[in-house]
Amino acid sequence: MPVLNRIASYAGEMKGWRQHIHARPELEFDCHQTAAFIVERLREFGVDEIHEGIAKSGVVAIIDGRGPGPVIGLRADMDALPITELTGADHASTVPGRMHACGHDGHVAMLLGAAKYLAETRNFVGSVALMFQPAEEDGGGGEVMVKEGVMDRFNIARVFGIHNAPNLALGHFQTTPGPIMASVDTAWVTVTGRGGHAATPHECVDPVVAIVAMVQAVQTIIPRNVYALDEAVISVTMINAGSASNIIPESGTFAATIRAFRPDVRDLLKKRFLEIVSGTATAFGVKAEVNYEWGYPATINDEKETEFAASVAREVSGDAAVNDQSNREMGSEDFSYMLEARPGAYLFLGIGPGAGLHHPAYDFNDEAAPIGASFLARLVEKSQPIPG
Predict the structure, then answer these.
(1) Are 217 and 276 spatial neighbours (Cβ–Cβ below 8 Å)?
(2) Strands 183-192, 247-248: parallel, antiparallel or unpaired by DSSP?
(3) 104 φ/ψ sector (left φ>0, alpha ψ -120 to 50, else beta)
(4) Quick one: residue 230, left, alpha or beta (phi over 0 = left, psi -120 to 50 = alpha)?
(5) What pTM value is reported for the model?
């Protein structure tokens, strides 16, 4: 793999950084221990500026190049997931019920590797802003960083991020111009009727049959209201009602995840979901309350920046290892807020075979770290080259 030789020599260090973070997972905005470890490394590297406490525990570090020029932003997420780890690794989580099951520990290691190289060599003009972000999994730390003004404060002109991809060949890259990941919204529905004895349903107003009807009806939204070539997903993932087999409950709940790429489709899904729940409630004589949580927007790559990022990936991994017209993903990502604020691109980096993301047996492949770090470093050098 034609990674940068200097970064290849950091492989052992990056593995150590990654496994240190893996053993000490933190959730949402509470990434203070992880941030302190990152800051300690950045100080060792001799970066020019370190700004802490952004989005509570986020860090932005600045490395200046050899002369004036624009600022490029590189982002890594830091947070873990509330999952009990089953890897059995020596570096497994030491915090019960928490683990790095999405590889954010690996993302941090890659950005730290790029930071060390860029601080040593400075073969670019302008500056690079290294953004270590909390709360990607839950909380929208990317949105908070944007709202706190990181793009304007540090004059960031373009932004890039990468995510590891289990079961994509090691060192292979995938991306696509335009939407690459979906928006995500969540609907929480509480249905209230009148409970009573299951032997006398005529004296009750049964919320269970109303919930069943609602769940079945919302599944018709996509095949009957959304144009067939506009990808969308509605998945009902939770239903809770009742406490005994001979009791009709007073109320019940269900929840759904709702995903799309286009804003107009996203609006349509919400409209039809609310209409169906309301209409079904009326038909069954129950009361329905919907808490519709507007979540992360779609992650939309800039066409020009995607083409540029793919060219850098080819330089690192070779033409055959880069697919710049890949399928879109129905998962979501709060890097979307950064791409709303600035042009840029998001890519997936293969880490080889293994358990999938958010699985308790998942573990980041440390062999991927020098590849990702080389890609991030070359983004800076290729976008802001030294004249002559």
Answers:
(1) yes
(2) unpaired
(3) alpha
(4) beta
(5) 0.94
Q: CA–CA separation, 270 vs 172, rounded Å?
A: 37
User: What's the distance, Cα to Cα, between the start and end of the chain in Å?
Assistant: 28
Q: Is 327 exposed, middle or buried (0-12, 13-18, 19+ CB in 10 A)?
A: exposed
Tens digit of pLDDT for each residue in 195-236? 999 999 999 999 999 999 999 999 999 999 999 999 999 999
Phi/psi for 326 (5° steps) reads -75, 165
Residue 303 has a CB neighbour count (10 Å cut-off) of: 13
Using CA atoms, how far apart are residues 143 and 152, in angstroms rounded to an integer? 14
**Residue 171 contacts residue 348 (beta carbons within 8 Å):** no
Q: Which of 127, 144, 103 is nearest to 47 (CA)?
A: 127
CA 95/CA 386 separation, integer angstroms: 46
The tens digit of pLDDT for each residue in 308-359 reads: 999 999 999 999 999 999 999 999 999 999 999 999 999 999 999 999 999 9
User: Residue length, the chain?
Assistant: 388
Beta bridge partners of 345: 160
Cα radius of gyration (the chain): 24
Q: How far is CA 212 from CA 12, 241, 375, in A?
A: 54, 11, 49
Instruction: Report whether pLDDT(1) > 50.
Output: no
pLDDT tens column, 106-144: 999 999 999 999 999 999 999 999 999 999 999 999 999
pLDDT greater than 80 at residue 279:
yes
